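Quick bug: Cytochrome C oxidase, cbb3-type, subunit III output formatted oddly.
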Amino acid sequence: MKLFLLFFALTAVISSCLLEPSPDPDKAVVDEIEESTEVNLSLSANALGAFAETMEAVRISVYQSNDGQRGDLIGEPHDFSISETGRYKLQGLSTGPKFFLVELLGEGAKVIARGETFLNVTLGAQSVDSVTLSSVGDPSVAIRFEMDVALTNLPIGGPDVEPQALSIMKEGFKCQNCHASTVAGGLDLNSDPIKSGREPLASNYLALVEEIVARVKDDNRPMPPFGSRLDATQIETMETWLMQVKAASTPEVSIDFYRLTISQDDQDIGNFRLSRSGDGSWVITPDLVLGVGQSFQFAFSAMTDEESTLDAWQETLKIPLDGNLRVERVITYQEPAIDI
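Here's what came back:
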């Protein structure tokens, strides 16, 4: 009887071994490869903005994607200490579309900002270099506002154009071969009227005239940089013409101050009188706090005195995380009419 039971047990063990399928080598490789994924999220200084001073940790949560919508959370959130390089690595994720929720944690693990990004995870290493973060909780930031304004006069009936000056530049020395719209110096001699960058040349002469004249006279940095040089008569002809345009382009008025009205959804936030800083830009003197990520309407008025408005315009500005706002404006107080 004992021999019979021993024989039966051995038979069962052997049968179990024969019936159990052997591991599928292909499947084993696939499982191993699917885990060899690496996602690197980069939080640059620009993305962090003012939060860089208050954040104490970074939390990244990974979610399934359901028809392009954020689905179930995969595993537990990943908490990271602050990385000096700004890069945070996740490994071993399954392949396929995923949503990544990035949260900045402040004191007491309080979420102070969050942002979301989407990535189709594939085998190997991938990078996510752009995550837009929005403030959570108190969304306000102190505003540091600067405005630079270039005032130019483009008078009707400007100076008589000296054809010989253009002939020297365009025919004698072929200056336009290099100085076209997308080539050297941004000076476009092929445009009509001639332009510097995107503006009519006359509106830039306040800065350009002296530089152009100086370069054609400069023995160390000659212009043209090769070949024959302009002689004294040619330089005088061109310099006279350039100075004529400069004189006609010099503003005969000045801006005394700017009025600024800030509003949102037709509700006035405040009225300000901009003052001039030491570097010549216009700034808001009183403290101003606005909501991060919100858009506001800025209405500007350039005043030559308390009653006279030289120029007025509006811009919609979105408040960045760092609170820095910068506006640039070119004001012309007559229609362009100088044909050079």
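Actually, after a second look the formatting is fine. The two ends are 120 Å apart (CA to CA). Closing.
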